[in-house]
């Protein structure tokens, strides 16, 4: 885009700061979620007996169910963490960039 507004936005140091912070947060959160998911999948593939063991002696619930539930809940929580930053700090920076670019 060659529009002067876009050029002013890209030249704004706050825009670079926003892009860097958002990218870093997304990368860290993605690595946590993917690490947990792939660790679970590796256990399923290479040590399925570990997940098949019961939570309690004589119980029907295997230990794999709560572990998988924790992976899902952690994913939800990390989505909430991203939403918190996106709707707070990142939105404030975005509004500042837009206001400064209209001058």
TrEMBL record:
Keywords carried by this UniProt record: Membrane, Plasmid, Transmembrane, Transmembrane helix
Gene Ontology cellular component list: plasma membrane
UniProt-listed Pfam families: DUF485
Positions of transmembrane segments: 25-47, 59-85
InterPro entries: DUF485, Inner_membrane_assoc
UniProt-listed PANTHER family: INNER MEMBRANE PROTEIN YJCH
UniProt-recorded name of the protein: DUF485 domain-containing protein
Organism of this sequence: Azospirillum thermophilum
Upper classification of the organism: Bacteria, Pseudomonadati, Pseudomonadota, Alphaproteobacteria, Rhodospirillales
């Amino acid at each position: 885009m060659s529009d002067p507004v876009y050029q002013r936005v890209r030249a704004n140091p706050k825009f670079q700061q926003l892009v860097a912070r958002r990218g870093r947060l997304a990368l860290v959160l993605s690595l946590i979620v993917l690490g947990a998911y792939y660790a679970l999948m590796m256990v399923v593939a290479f040590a399925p007996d570990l997940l098949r063991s019961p939570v309690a002696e004589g119980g029907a619930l295997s230990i794999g169910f709560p572990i998988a539930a924790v992976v899902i809940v952690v994913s939800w929580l990390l989505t909430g963490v991203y939403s918190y930053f996106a709707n707070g700090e990142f939105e404030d920076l975005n509004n500042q960039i837009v206001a400064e670019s209209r001058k």
